[in-house]
């Protein structure tokens, strides 16, 4: 009996040791990921990341760009009005419901980062895209279509905050932000072209477009999850130790900042103007300028092409001369071309004006992200930018809905004064942004460097 008891005791002791070893191994793996990624980022010098340093950033940026292309294709896809036999007001609901998803993303983004890191966003956001487009591909009843867009709103809001905050502290961030947001415009440019080729040329139903979206979203999911696999919650907490020590995730602190609210108001008005034009310019040209269906489609393409050129090309200019001067100049040109678009009742003038309007509206969004990142401490970037983008996404859903609702009674010509008012509001908000104090930024960087050096373990401790 005694030998059996001894054997049981030894067995239970062995099991406890094995369980303890498993916990240690799991913890060690997480810490290994964190320490490896931390070294990968900083290389012991606390240097800002580059687009190609560490080298894995090349793949990460590539799939982040794909996420923005998908978001643009989501917003640029149209053609529901005739299939569902809907009024302007009813079809405008498709712009409104993503607001719920954006709002959820605003209040959960920081928590996801603290618990799961960028890996969590890389897993959750593409899944939201896949769910949305898989349901749309089976052309459900209209109420289901409206509700399912909440998922795409959440996915887009999560990606926006995550990748803009990440890129915002990179070297040459203005240029990279410009290219990343240009990808959104590329997506919005491609969507109607692909959808039109399916429906008109191939005589396929409109929902076949979403088969392509499902495929792209699966590629996005695999790519983001693979490249961001080591960006765990442990990595994020290590790089944001102040937040972890305070027990918060930064949203409360971010909401106390005037800059966060200014950025949110800027995005709210800006995205209302951008998505409002992109969503209704074709209908405006068709009904008000009496253009052909083909010519109207070309004008919509011209707007998104202008956005792409402005974001990719003017990012270099903004990097060289600074956001304060450049965005002020871009806004002045945007107001000028919007007035031409509205007041000259000629299709050619309108088409050219809306293209240049896209060029000068394009770099405003990435430029505002950069100013916000410079004005706020890095520990609240995800929270502040995520909240601001969620509010911006709200503007991008509410104002197209308002335009559609008013157009049902007063005609689609109401697009013009609403867009002009929104651009004017963006200008007023921009002029109220605080100036970036270069001396304070330098002191802040020195403080971060000293803190980072003090937290690097010595060789003896690591051994």
Automatic annotation (TrEMBL):
Membrane topology recorded in Swiss-Prot or TrEMBL: Multi-pass membrane protein
GO molecular function: transmembrane transporter activity
Alphabetical list of Gene3D superfamilies matching this protein: MFS general substrate transporter like domains (1.20.1250.20)
GO cellular component: endomembrane system; membrane
Subcellular location: Endomembrane system
InterPro entries xrefs: MFS (IPR011701), MFS_dom (IPR020846), MFS_trans_sf (IPR036259), MFS_Transporter (IPR051788)
Regions crossing the membrane: 61-80, 86-108, 120-138, 144-169, 181-202, 208-229, 259-282, 294-313, 325-344, 350-373, 385-408, 414-433
Xref: Pfam families: MFS_1 (PF07690)
Biased composition (Basic and acidic residues): 1-13
Keywords noted in UniProt: Membrane, Transmembrane, Transmembrane helix, Transport
Region described as Disordered: spans on this chain: 1-21
Domain Major facilitator superfamily (MFS) profile, residue spans: 52-439
Similarity annotation: Belongs to the major facilitator superfamily.
Protein name (Swiss-Prot/TrEMBL): Major facilitator superfamily (MFS) profile domain-containing protein
Provenance organism: Clonostachys byssicola
UniProt lineage: Eukaryota, Fungi, Dikarya, Ascomycota, Pezizomycotina
